[in-house]
Amino acid sequence: MDYFIEQVRILMPVLGYDIFRGRAASAPERAVKTAGQGTLGLDDMTVDSPQFHLQTTKDIDAQAQVIDGEFTVLEGFIVSAMMRSSGKQSESTARQFENRSLQHGELMKSAVTLDGGSLARLAKDVVYSSPSAAASVVLGRASSNGRIEWVAESGLSYGTWEMSQAEA
Hints:
The chain is α+β, with helices and mostly antiparallel strands.
């Protein structure tokens, strides 16, 4: 049965059903375990990293974590509610802005706009292909270096943490 469940967990996201992804609900009887602390049950997930923070002086305050091998921006945090274009962009940056705008539109489907309309609170975890894609969308920009922007509580950047994992 365990083998079957593991196969279903792999197959469902491929078919477009993300029912097993994301963090477990924060029920008191379930403790989140980090990687290396043992096998997690079906209702839990594998947390592969520390939590990384992205904060700005414009009140954006997001957290993300590598969960089940995917860079996941966590629910409940504050992100930009709009994408900002500088107007003067190269062709490649304009294409990147269009791509990030589509991703931002998807993000806003799972967010609640806050007073003033420039910020939003995430209502669910959102998975991204890279920390840079996540940082760009969270900040409302065409591009961003997520390997530098996301920083753990210890002060370690995502890029430095990732390199340390590769060496280990």
